[in-house]
Design brief:
With 138 residues, this protein is mainly alpha-helical. It is built from five helices and four strands; from the N terminus they run ββαααββαα. The structure holds zinc ion (2 copies).
């Protein structure tokens, strides 16, 4: 048993249950529900500032949810979002343009590679008609 400071409110608590105190666990869950609902209802307007202003959730808790990866928002404070693949700053999207292009290209390539396997094998049943015989008529 150990006592830690809650990551959100800073109060000391018994850390057997996690990194945050039981009061904040409850607040985090409430905030999560509120924010998810807001994002669902406002898919085009769910950047960090709008969430705070419209739902009046605690920015501390929102930051915590973002840090834990439970919620993803555009326009996080302190700069743009970062690409999940390479870590480069993006204009709010989860993956930067280069990585997006690469991912799309990789998908196309893997699909191309799968096609011949899935397809039929025409050569097996009908043996090739034209053998190249070496008759030696010279
Ligand atoms: Zn707390
Ligand atoms: Zn990237």
């Amino acid at each position: 048993m150990a006592i830690s400071a809650c990551e959100i409110c800073g109060k000391p608590f018994n850390d057997a249950i996690g990194k945050i105190c039981s009061v904040c666990v409850k607040k985090v869950d409430e905030t999560y529900t509120i924010v998810r609902k807001y994002m669902y209802q406002n898919p085009n307007n769910c950047d960090y500032i709008s969430i705070i202003e419209d739902t009046e959730v605690s920015d501390k808790i929102l930051n915590y949810l973002i840090k834990k990866g439970r919620i993803e928002v555009a326009n996080k404070p302190g700069g743009a979002s970062r690409c999940r693949a390479c870590g480069k700053e993006t204009s709010g999207s989860a993956v930067c343009e280069q990585c997006m292009a690469r991912i799309v290209a990789e998908k196309l390539t893997s699909r191309k590679n799968e096609q011949p396997k899935a397809g039929k094998k025409p050569e097996d049943k009908n043996t090739p008609k034209s053998y190249h015989k070496f008759t030696g008529d010279r």
